[in-house]
Structure formats: structure tokens, C-alpha cells
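Q: Got a minute? One more chain.
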Amino acid sequence: MKEHSTYIKYLFSITLILILPAIALSIHYEPLSGDLTRLGYLSENNYGWNKKQPVQIIFPNPTSKFPEILVIGDSFSYGNVWQSHIKEKYQKNFLTIRWSDLKNQSSCYFEYLKKSYPSLKSVIFETVEMGAVGKLIETSEIIQKPCKFKPSKPFIKQPKKFKTENLRNKNGFIKDPVFLYKTFLNQFKIEEEIKTSSKTYILKLKNKDLFSHVNSEYGLFYRNAINDKKAWKIIDINRAIDASELIKDHLKNHNLESLFLLIPDKSTAYQEQIISKDIIYKNQILDRLKYDKSFISVIDEFKKLVANEIDFYLSNDTHLSTLGYKHMGEIIFNKSLISEN
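A: Always. Here it is, folded:
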């Protein structure tokens, strides 16, 4: 009995020795909130944003029973942030759906949407730069499919109205032991080693006042966003541009205006602020489409804003901050025909 009691005490002591440091690290690293910290096994206490953000009211989707603008978008539109800014300031109403809603559809899909929402006047095709070529080509193929079946209803999230948080949550635990272990090991590696072993690049910046995280002399960037664009072929870019013309013609037949919104990848927006030569490449598709009136070009404004606004993109993430989305809403409204509708 005494031996059994000793064994229990021994096991309990070993468990405490293992668990207590893990709990301490979990609290020290702060709860995960960014995709780049998650992919790079990096702590939020080093790379999480710290500057207070403006608050934005987020309206339900659609923002009205009579939306004027349909957004087909990715994760830069899912949160309904830039749309809510335009709704609040300029009283324009949006319906936002996902690119995945277009899959398995056919040439009668936009006719179906127009009949379902007669108030629609414009369609904004929003995609992050990295996914632009594929998304445009896929959409042009969908609108050429024969209409043999009834279109399916889009998946629409309809959250209640709420306000965004202006501060990052720093209280809580990281429950993933693998993340804790890898993050702990990364503390002893130099930036170059982490860069070659994860999906997150840690690149030295020319200016340490671009972000509000602790290690602000360095910025986090997504490896695939850099490498995928380097791999683009001219023939694919030409196909994407031809696809945009097909899409415009198709929607015009249904009395819908087509607008294309390509969001610069974080590495593109901050390219002139990065010391490393790894991401010096020509932004072919953005440069080619810059002067097309149906494309809402935001690249020039973004490059100016990232140099002057702290945390325009979130320091720990590939996406914009609330401040960034509000600026984006202004650019979209002022540079597109939706302001005239």
C-alpha cells in the first residue's frame, strides 16, 4: 500500500513537472489569433498586434432585403467589414456569398440570382491576388456550362448586428501541445531557419513603425503568396484576362454590371518596405489590369497606406485590420461605379 502511494505521488510529481511549464508557456505566448503565427509556430506575445483599432458596426448579410451589390468573395469579404463600412457611411446595401457557391453552377446562375434579388445592379468579384488567376478562369468556365438544372441557393450567413473588437484578446490558453512545443523550439532559431521550415516568412523591414507587435523590425508574410505568384505563366494571366471579358459580357446580358476587386497579398502591399530580395517580382496581373475600368485597383493606395498607417494589415495575419478594411471600403466606393448607382 505504501509503495502504491509512493508511486501515485511520483506520477503526480512528474505530471506537474510536465504540465506546469506548458501552462506557463501557454499563458506567456497568449491565445492564437493570427493565421501567420499559427502557420509559423510563432507566439502572439512577439507578433500579435497591440495598437487599438477603430470599432466597426457589422451589419447582417444581406445588409438589407433589397441589396444593390452582390459580392462574390473570399476571406477578405466573409466578415462583412468593408461592406458594413460602406453601408454605414453611404447607405449602399450588399449581399455577400462565397466563391464555393459558384461550384456546380451553370450559365443560368446569375439569372437566378437576379430574379431572387431584383434590386441587384452590380456584382463585385473579390479575390486575393494569389487566387485571382484561378478564380477568374473557373468562373468563365461555369458561365459557359449549359443550364440543365435548377441553380442551388447560395450559403448566406446572417449574423446579428455586432461591433468589432478594438483590442486583441490576450487572456486564455493555447490548448495545442504540438504548437506549444514547436513555438518553444522556434525561439532558439534565427529567422532564416524558421523561414525555410514553415509556411511563414519572417522578413526584415526597412521601418519598424509599420506594425505594433514587439518584434516590429520584422514582418510576417505567407510563403505560398510569394511562391505561387512567381510560378504564374503569361499564358495563364492572359487566360484570366480573357475570362474577365467573358464574365462581363455574360452579366451584361442580365443587366448586371461586373466589377473585379483584386486584393494585394500582404507581401505585395509591403514589397517596398521589405529589405529581403526574396519577394522582388513583377505584379503581373495587377499591373496588367490596373487601367481597366471594370477592375477596382487598390494597389497604389494600399502601398501608400501601409507606409503611413500602423497595422494596415494585421501583424500576425494575412488579412487587413479593421482600420485597413475601413480604408478599403472608402477606396472601393470612390473608385467604382457603385457610388453612382
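A: Residues 2-29 form the longest helix (28 residues).
Q: Perfect, thanks.
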